[in-house]
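so my prof wants the structure for this chain in the tokens format not the other one, which i didnt know existed until like an hour ago. anyway here's the sequence
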Amino acid sequence: MGRLVNEFTWSFSRDRALRQCPRAYYYRYYGSWDGWHEDAPAAVRRMYALKKLTSLHGWAGQVVEWTLLTALHQARAGGQADLGYLRRLAAGKLKSDWRLSQYNIHAGGPSSFRIQEHHYAQIDARLQPDQLAPAIQEKVRTAVSHFASSGLLERLCRVSGEDWLHCPPPASRQGPPALPDHLTLDGVKIWIAMDLADREAGGIHIRDWKTGRVHSDDQAQLACYALYALNRWPEASLDRIRTTAVYLSLPGPWEPTIPTPAMLAATREAIQTSVRHMRSLLTDPEKNTAEIACFPVTGDARMCRFCNFRALCPEGHKRMMAAPAPEPEEEDPLAEEEVG
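here's what i got, hopefully its the right format
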């Protein structure tokens, strides 16, 4: 089988990455391409390995999502689903992932799971998860507690099998990750990574877990999911779609939004504008090729402090070293699950 072609695609995480730092965007989507192949140049393989790093805060979000999906699937099969069980699930996942990262720092391949702070020796890899910074522990505990007390799990367990439109299994650390769904707009593949969708009260309800802060583009992301629903499920109509951002850092209930034609039109226009900007930076938009010189380093030293690619970026490293030291519990502004 031939090598994969680096096709131009779009996602909200890709758009955010470009806005945060064009240079890191280049490393992530162009410089690291093909780095999973053993015969790729060493510099490309290194870029790919750095791309795959997961920060502590990003990892906390992954643990929460895995815990909730595991609990949901087990509860629907008649298993346990109380707060104590959720906490035990999360604690076990923290420990197993931590040990996996410890092992992979020395023995893993470029695609292996590794915690960014382990890679850069910012934390002692000999520590156990219960010795981590309080912010990480609290982020996970708070999220599972809010989920358990919201009543949402019990509500989701009442959804019949035929009414589930999207309910993925918990992500595995083994093998390549499953590709998300996508929507095509103006010939461009738009990645869609919604968490849950089911038929509810004669309509469709789409829910998306959020373990971090509120972002300005969260509602646009949900509107994009509504666009996907209209194209994916024949029974979908805009007046019967509900979307909910489940902000697990806050106690429920979380209020749903009813997407409007104006919201969908604004989201489509924003995506088109972002696509034009991304393509304007390419040396050959038709072939989706890029040169590093067209992607300058961000002026925000805070982004440099949390960047996976700091080892490759002299400008960013210099800026980071000259900036004030971060607060011990400062949250990673880049801690978003990458899609596309």
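also thought this was worth mentioning. The chain has one domain: 9-322.
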